[in-house]
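Appendix B. Chain record.
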Amino acid sequence: MRVLHTSDWHLGRSFHRVNMLEAQSAFIGSLVATVRERAVDAVVVSGDVYDRAVPPLAAVELFDDALHRLADLGVPTVMISGNHDSARRLGVGAGLIGRAGIHLRTAPAAAGTPVMLADAHGDVAFYGLPYLEPALVKDEFAVEKAGHESVLAAAMDRVRADLATRAPGTRSVVLAHAFVTGGEPSDSERDITVGGVASVPAGVFDGVDYVALGHLHGCQTLTERVRYSGSPLPYSFSETDHRKTMWLVDLDADGAVTAERIDCPVPRALARISGTLEELLADPALTRHEDAWVEATLTDAVRPAEPMARLTARFPHTLSLVFAPERAPDDPDVSYARRLSGRSDQEIAEDFVAHVRGAGPDARERDVLRDAFDAVRADDVVREVAR
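Structure tokens predicted for this chain:
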């Protein structure tokens, strides 16, 4: 069976101030063409179809167009909700849409109920594990402590239990939206840390033939059977070096996996450039970036006059301007933002306690802070879904 694995469309999202809807539409066209030209048997979309729980109308219309075009091809599609989606909204009409071969899996309770497809070698069971917010699904999966690993492990127990009831030789594909250990994140994914832990081990998914992951935006191979497709478009300058692709996966009669990367359309190259303003305006080596979306970091000791206007004269698609004067790390003028760069909310809070009290929090106090951050994040999820 030939499966096209994609995820993290983030329909409705912009790249800085650039509306990406046209580029997202071009990607949908490329996906449909790949399905048709490469004789794809099934499409899987591993979450974050939309960029937010209540997407703009134009994004909903593009999603509707994608569903119609996939249904017209007669190729089954399995989709799950991600942490950016409203599972309940995305799942509206799932039963009716399923009659057209578009299978929306957004309910955690249905994790062990597969979409059954078949090829010349027999059945393939597709299990959809939507994003499982631990605080919201711990009762459904009867876990004592809300954590990503515990709820995913419980969901996978249901998958393996159902698979054991299937005919011998039944192959299996799991769709999941999660941060799996070994994956490389970028700046454009929403933090899903719970209890100080964001990732789960790949071993949680043992026992199935292929795991189609979503959430991280870079295409990655964790094992031959566990892969991220990544997002089809860039959504932050941290993705400058990404090659945006989908996975074309072949499952043979015994469940062995071979995979090929299929390139997505590139709306415009990304470039990160750094130096003084005069260096950036004069350096001939930067000519190749003049048509790219640019993030420019200026290292001038004193902020120059009209830097954006002068930069866009050479790099008309400059979207981000960062000021980072070259100073020693202990220079008191080093910006607060630079000092906080790369630090988690938990670490910043602990540093604040140490600053005002003269000593950092003890183990019990760190747990209190962690629980507070988890509660706020979970409450944000509940509020967004309820909108």
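Further analysis of this model is presented in Appendix C.
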